[in-house]
Amino acid sequence: MDGIRFTLNGQEVTYAGSAADRLLDVLRDVYGCKSVKCGCKEGECGACSVLIDGTLINSCCVAMGAVCGATVTTLEGYRETARFAALEKAFGDTAAVQCGFCIPGMVLASEALLAKNPHPTEEEIREGLSGNLCRCTGYNAIVNAVANAAKEGNGLW
To answer: Is the dihedral of CA 132, 137, 143, 147 positive or negative?
Structure first.
């Protein structure tokens, strides 16, 4: 096999390591995606969240073989978009960031939600963010940020 080919943040890449290697480790150690955090290593905290073909996935639970031919987006790639700018502004305006550890996962969860449902209710926002733990800010400010981004996103989603 010639390696595992996939798209990472808009760039075609080929990973030459084992198909059993964990996506989380490869993203951080090989490709330098430091927004992908190692939290629980069990898929419980969301710190390692990435988008795979637009779906929010915990990268600690994904073997590299599963991303062959897929499009993987981390915050490093997503932050170059207008949608990120709208979420960044909303998170800042509502003071939804403290330590920042959870924010990459929260932002990608917000993107996944808003891409499917551009006008979510509070309950739908809370459900869309579930699986992403925040130990500092709490969830109300983050929920408000997503609601504001949805309202003020000017049709981005």
So the answer is: negative
Asked if residue 153 lies in contact with residue 118, where contact means CB atoms within 8 angstroms, the answer is: yes
pTM over 0.70: yes
Task: For residue 6, list its beta bridge partners.
Answer: 13
What are the CA-CA distances from residue 25 to residues 4, 127, 135 (Å)?
A: 15, 27, 23
What are the pLDDT digits (tens) for 54-99? Answer: 999 999 999 999 999 999 999 999 999 999 999 999 999 999 999 9
Could you give the CA distance from residue 17 to residue 65 in angstroms, rounded to a whole number?
Answer: 10
Q: How far apart are CA 139 and CA 94, in angstroms?
A: 11
One-letter amino acid at 137 equals T
Residue 67 near residue 23 (C-beta atoms within 8 A): yes
For residue 145 the two structure tokens come to: 């940020």
Q: Could you identify the residue written with the tokens 């579930």?
A: 130
Q: How far apart are CA 128 and CA 125, in angstroms?
A: 5
Q: Over the stretch 107-128, which tens digit does the pLDDT of each residue have? A: 999 999 999 999 999 999 999 9
